[in-house]
Amino acid sequence: EVQLVESGGGLVQPGGSLRLSCAASGFTFSSYAMSWVRQAPGKGLEWVSVISGSGGSTYYADSVKGRFTVSRDNSKNTLYLQMHSLRADDTAVYYCANFRGSSEYFQHWGQGTLVTVSS
Amino acid sequence: DIQMTQSPSTLSASVRDRVTITCRASQSISSWLAWYQQKPGKAPKLLIYKASSLESGVPSRFSGSGSGTEFTLTISSLQPDDFATYYCQQYNSYPLTFGGGTKVEIK
Lengths: 119, 107
Fold this sequence. Notes:
The complex is a heterodimer of chains A (119) and B (107). With 119 residues, chain A is mostly beta strands. Helices cover 0% and strands 55% of the residues of chain A. In chain A, strands 2, 4, 5, 6, 9, 10 and 11 form a 7-stranded mixed beta sheet that branches. A 4-stranded antiparallel beta sheet of chain A has the order 1-3-8-7, with no helix packed on it. Chain B is globular and about 35 Å long. In chain B, strand 9 (85-90) and strand 10 (97-98) form a beta hairpin. Chain B starts with a strand and ends with a strand. Chain A binds chain B through residues 35, 44-47, 50, 59, 61-62, 95, 100, 103-107, 109-112, and chain B through 32, 34, 36, 38, 42-46, 49-50, 55, 87, 89, 91, 94-101.
């Protein structure tokens, strides 16, 4: 059974940093691209970033480019999202999700971790 | 960027009703469209991919159709478990984008 478990969310001040983690199990982690998707309170879904299975390719939404960095440790089956220069509009539940093969839709999702940016 | 527009934003329906949700893309995305269901406090769940392919384990009352710029998600006979918010997502090109969502409420 595929499991994705996010952690690392919490309350952070504007301008601060936070690192999210997503522990994966139940599939060959290194074979799959992984993504982060976020959802602001009461709002819709917003794709944030993606990283290839090898970690060699990454893409970001314009809203986070230059502030967020996605990475992965395939030896630990773990995905990361390093977030810097956080703003109030980064407040959201952050989900990790995997693609099915090379198709960029989200087959499995974690339960999400809440990031709140507030003073 | 490809904009995805869903309609309606809210839909009131009764059990056993046939429900149709529309998703329009700002440019052609061929059949590179997925649909998700989300319940309050839960992660989204994949329903449909490649516009009309039903994800394993999803009830057959859900179906998807369309290509190019116009797509529909149909629930043939609404069940109590189907009251939720539905999102479309294009994966033709980056950035990946979602529609704004359609909340299906009890009438």
